[in-house]
C-alpha cells in the first residue's frame, strides 16, 4: 500500500485532494494528513473520511522539524504532496513575516526531512519516492491585457505581493534541491481554484455567501482584474497525474482555460443564484447587482493571470474538464447543501471542537 504524506490537508485544496484520492484509489493507498489547523484548516472538510483505517490526521506545524521528522521515522512515506501554506494576499500585506515563516521555512523543513528519510548512503534516493510542491501562478507576476500573453513554465518569476514572493522563494528552494541533490520532486503552479470547502475570505464563496444574505459584494478597483479559474477537482486530478506520469525535476503549470474578470465572476454568480434559487426562497429577493460595491484597490494588485497548460497536456495527458459555467453551478449547489458548514466557518464555531480535541498537542 502506497503511503502519502499530505501537508495542509485540512485546507480547501488539500481536503479536496484527499477526497479525490480516496474516490480514485479507495483502499489501495494510505494518507497521513498533517495540518497545523490555523483559521484556514477545517477538519469538518474531512468528517466523512476521518474514520477510515487508511487515513490518519496529525496536528503539527510544518516548521516543527522534530514533529515532521517523527512522521517520516514512524512511517514509510512514498509520496509527499505539499499544500501547506499561508495563501491570502490581503493577509500577507498586513503580516508578511507569517508568510515567510510558513511558506519558506516550512518548505525547507519538509524538504530536509524527506531528504533525510529517502537518501541512500551513495547520495541517490530510494526508488519510487516523490515530493510534489504545490505552488501558484502568482509567482510569475502580472500579464498585460494582450489575450495572446500567457504564463509558461519558462516565464521569469516576478512576484508582487508578500504572499507570491514567499511562494516564489519556496519554489526556488525546491528547484535548488532538485538541482543540487537530484532530489525526486516536481513543482506545480496552478491558477485560482474554486469549489467545495473554500474558506469564505476568497472571492467566490464570499460573493455567494454575501449575496444570499443581501450583504454588499466588494469589488477591488474597477473589477476588471482577470484570473484564470480552475475547478478544484480538476486540480486534484492534475496533481495525481503529475506524480504518476510527470518527469522528475520538472515544473508543470495547471490552468483552467477559464479567464474571467472579477466583475464577470460576480455577475455570473448573481445570475446563477437567481436561476438556481426556488421561486419561493426568501433569499431570492436579496440577490441583486445592486449589492455590488466598488472599494479601494488592493496594494500591488496584479492585473491579469493566465496559464498555458500546454506542457502538462503534452507530457502528462492532463487538461481541464470543468468549464466555469458548470463548475460554478456545482459549487453553488454544494453550498446550498452545506449551509451548516458555511455558518460554522463564518461564526468560527468550526474551530472550537477541534481546538479542544487537540489542545494539548
TrEMBL record:
<protein>
    <recommendedName>
        <fullName>dTDP-glucose 4,6-dehydratase</fullName>
        <ecNumber>4.2.1.46</ecNumber>
    </recommendedName>
</protein>
<dbReference type="InterPro" id="IPR036291">
    <property type="entry name" value="NAD(P)-bd_dom_sf"/>
</dbReference>
<dbReference type="InterPro" id="IPR005888">
    <property type="entry name" value="dTDP_Gluc_deHydtase"/>
</dbReference>
<comment type="similarity">
    <text>Belongs to the NAD(P)-dependent epimerase/dehydratase family. dTDP-glucose dehydratase subfamily.</text>
</comment>
<dbReference type="GO" id="GO:0008460">
    <property type="term" value="F:dTDP-glucose 4,6-dehydratase activity"/>
</dbReference>
<dbReference type="Pfam" id="PF16363">
    <property type="entry name" value="GDP_Man_Dehyd"/>
</dbReference>
<feature type="domain" description="NAD(P)-binding">
    <location>
        <begin position="5"/>
        <end position="331"/>
    </location>
</feature>
<keyword id="KW-0456">Lyase</keyword>
<keyword id="KW-0520">NAD</keyword>
<dbReference type="InterPro" id="IPR016040">
    <property type="entry name" value="NAD(P)-bd_dom"/>
</dbReference>
